[in-house]
Write a structure and sequence with these properties.
Elements lengths: L11 H11 L4 H12 L3 E2 H4 L5 H6 L4 E4 L3 E2 L9 E2 L9 H12 L3 E6 L10 H14 L4 E5 L7 H9 L4 E3 L9 H4 L5 H14 L5 E7 L5 H13 L4 E6 L16 H13 L4 E5 L8 H15 L1
Parallel strand pairs: 2-5, 3-4, 5-6, 6-7, 7-8, 8-9, 9-10
Antiparallel strand pairs: 1-2
Length: about 300
């Protein structure tokens, strides 16, 4: 922590929510953990220190993190280890699919570390994982949370050709804060990726996420919503940034529950098919419900 930096204490209501979630554990949580270990798989739930891990794993929901557990970027909000990644494992898609089958998953979320060292940024591994899941689990729905692939449209097309049910890419924060928070990423590149996805595959819902509490203004959050809607993004999640460790950016302030309710209302007013907003909301939180809500919205609009 730098000299003179003020520590913002968590509000009591947030402490209570975190404590309640952390105390939960049962057989379903243990099953998910055993399966991940047995298949030598990574989850963003653990690597990113998600506060909802107990709730989600107890519900047999997990977000698989492919392409290893070492990221080529060092974003100031993220707890995933940066460094030089290992070689891509060609058997990883099959292990993800088998783990999802064992856990009885019907909606699977797949994300990855950034792999700027790979020619396609890891797009072919995403596509292989989607195909493996569909082959192993008939009727499964698959959501992918992808990196920006360095702006490579061919890499995006590789993922879209495998027909994910939802394609997610997070802008994470507002335009002004992006250079200081997201390593090697740009706000415009992320918006363009989401827009390209919609133009290439208009039938696939798109999704993005915002963290609050990093020093953004209310007006900047509304601008970010408008920017996402300008790219026809369908689903938005908004959650409180929680500092994983002292290596990451500090929390500037905590938003109150009523502010999250107001942000949800603003998002719905702007035309998102679904908005999930709350202190502990993360990109994959209630992912299956989000996808179902968006699908119902499309049916109503058609």
């Amino acid at each position: 922590m730098s000299e003179g930096q003020t520590v913002i204490r968590k509000p009591e209501w947030l402490k209570a929510a975190l404590k309640t979630d952390t105390l939960r554990t049962d057989a379903d949580f243990a099953l998910v953990k055993r399966t991940m270990r047995a298949k030598a798989l990574n989850t963003v739930c653990e690597e990113a220190r998600c506060p909802n891990i107990y709730e989600c794993w107890n519900a047999r929901t997990a977000t698989f993190m492919i392409l290893g557990d070492i990221c080529t970027r060092a974003c100031r909000f993220c707890a995933v280890t940066p460094g030089r990644p290992r070689a891509v494992d060609p058997m990883e898609p099959a292990r993800v699919a088998e783990a999802a089958r064992v856990m009885g998953l019907l909606h699977v979320v797949v994300t990855s570390v950034a792999r700027d060292d790979l020619p396609d940024g890891g797009a072919s591994q995403f596509a292989a994982t989607i195909r493996a899941l569909r082959a192993k689990i008939p009727g499964v729905s698959v959501e992918v949370l992808i990196p920006d692939f360095g702006g490579d449209e061919a890499a995006l097309e590789t993922v879209l050709a495998a027909r994910p049910d939802v394609i997610n890419h997070n802008i994470e924060t507002v335009r002004r804060l992006t250079p200081s928070i997201r390593a090697k990423a740009t706000y415009e590149r992320s918006l363009k990726l989401l827009g390209k996805s919609k133009r290439i595959a208009p039938h696939i819902p798109t999704k993005s996420s915002l963290m609050v509490g990093l020093g953004e203004t209310w007006e900047e959050l509304l601008e970010a919503m408008d920017d996402l809607r300008a790219q026809d993004v369908d689903i938005l999640t908004v959650g409180q940034y929680l500092r994983p460790s002292r290596r990451q950016a500090p929390v500037v302030r905590y938003y109150a529950p009523e502010e999250f309710a107001a942000l949800r209302a603003e998002g719905l007013k702007r035309g998102f098919a679904h908005v999930e907003a709350g202190p502990l909301v993360r990109s994959s939180y209630h992912a299956r419900e989000q996808a179902a809500s968006a699908k119902a919205h499309f049916v109503r609009e058609s």
